[in-house]
C-alpha cells in the first residue's frame, strides 16, 4: 500500500472531511477522492460509507485506519532518524491565550521530558485560527477547544464555563449588566449572549476580544463581568451564580497534530502525550 494513501486516510480521520484533509496534505479534494478510490480497489473493500450528508469510515475503513497509524508513524520516524540523526527537533506549538497559564506549561514540560533535543516555538491565537495555521503547515501541534459535534484531537481535559466578577463589583440585575466576552467564534460568547437574551436580562457588551488576559484585566478592575472557562479564571476574580445569569456549557480541550511527514510529533505520540497529561491532572486533583 502507498504510504501517502494511508496518510490521506489518517488526515480524513483527524479532520473529518476531505476538504480539511486536502489542506493539511496539500492535495485537491478530487485528487484525494481518486487516491481513496484507488486504495479501495487495491484492497477490494469499501472504506467509506454515507451517513446522512457526510462520509464516514466503514468497518473495514476503521480497521485500516487503526493499522495505518502505526505504519505511518514507523515510516515517518525512520525518515526523521535518517534525515535528522543529531539535529535539534524544531516543534511549532500553538495555544489559545485562555490556556496559557493552566494547560500550556504542563504540555511544555511533558514535551521536554519526551524529547531532550526539542526546541519549541510557541504562538498564541484563537482555536479557529490555530486550526487554519495547522492546515496551512504553519504549526505542528496545537492546543484547541474541540469543535462542537466532533471527536477531533486527543483529550487533555474538560473545563466548565463560569461567570466571573471582581469581589467588590456590585451586581444590579435591574440595570443593564456590563459584560466583557470572547469573540463571536467562542462557545462562551454565544452561550452568554443568547442566554441573557432568553432570560430577558438587560446587558451591554463593554468589549470583546480573543485574549483571556484582557478579559481578566477588565474584570479585575471592576469594569464588567465575564463568561469563560474556570481554568482561565484570574486569581482576583470570584465565580458568581445568579438566577438572572444563564448556565454556561463545558468544553473539551484537546491536542491536535499536523499530518505532514516532517512533524516531530506523530499522531501516536500526540495521543500518548494527552494520556500522560490526563494522568498528571488527575494526580493534581487527587
Automatic annotation (TrEMBL):
InterPro entries: LTTR (IPR050176), LysR_HTH_N (IPR000847), LysR_subst-bd (IPR005119), WH-like_DNA-bd_sf (IPR036388), WH_DNA-bd_sf (IPR036390). The keyword tRNA-binding does not apply. Residues 1-58 form the HTH lysR-type domain. It comes from the Bacteria. Keywords: DNA-binding, Transcription, Transcription regulation. Pfam families: HTH_1, LysR_substrate. One of its GO terms (molecular function) is DNA-binding transcription factor activity. Belongs to the LysR transcriptional regulatory family. This is Transcriptional regulator.
Amino acid at each position: 500500500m502507498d504510504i501517502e494513501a494511508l496518510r490521506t486516510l489518517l488526515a480524513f480521520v483527524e479532520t473529518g472531511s476531505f476538504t480539511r484533509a486536502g489542506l493539511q496534505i496539500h492535495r485537491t479534494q478530487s485528487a484525494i477522492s481518486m487516491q481513496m478510490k484507488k486504495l479501495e480497489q487495491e484492497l477490494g473493500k469499501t472504506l467509506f460509507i454515507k451517513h446522512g450528508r457526510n462520509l464516514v469510515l466503514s468497518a473495514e475503513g476503521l480497521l485500516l485506519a487503526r493499522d495505518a497509524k502505526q505504519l505511518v508513524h514507523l515510516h515517518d520516524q525512520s525518515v526523521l532518524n535518517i534525515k535528522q540523526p543529531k539535529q535539534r527537533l524544531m516543534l511549532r506549538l500553538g495555544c489559545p491565550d485562555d490556556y496559557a497559564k493552566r494547560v500550556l506549561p504542563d504540555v511544555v514540560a511533558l514535551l521536554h521530558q519526551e524529547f531532550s533535543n526539542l526546541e519549541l516555538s510557541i504562538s498564541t491565537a484563537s482555536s479557529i485560527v490555530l486550526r487554519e495555521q495547522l492546515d496551512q503547515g504553519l504549526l505542528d501541534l496545537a492546543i484547541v477547544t474541540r469543535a462542537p459535534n466532533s471527536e477531533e484531537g486527543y483529550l487533555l481535559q474538560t473545563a466548565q464555563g463560569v461567570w466571573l466578577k471582581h469581589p467588590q463589583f456590585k451586581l444590579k440585575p435591574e440595570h443593564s449588566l456590563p459584560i466583557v466576552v470572547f469573540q463571536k467564534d467562542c462557545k462562551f460568547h454565544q452561550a452568554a449572549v443568547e442566554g441573557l437574551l432568553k432570560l430577558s436580562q438587560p446587558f451591554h457588551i463593554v468589549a470583546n476580544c480573543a485574549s483571556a488576559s484582557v478579559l481578566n484585566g477588565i474584570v479585575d478592575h471592576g469594569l464588567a463581568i465575564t463568561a469563560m472557562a474556570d481554568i482561565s479564571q484570574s486569581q482576583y476574580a470570584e465565580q458568581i451564580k445568579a438566577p438572572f445569569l444563564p448556565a454556561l456549557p463545558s468544553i473539551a480541550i484537546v491536542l491536535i497534530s499536523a499530518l505532514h511527514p516532517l512533524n516531530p510529533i506523530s499522531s501516536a505520540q500526540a495521543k500518548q502525550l494527552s494520556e500522560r497529561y490526563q494522568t498528571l491532572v488527575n494526580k493534581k486533583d487527587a
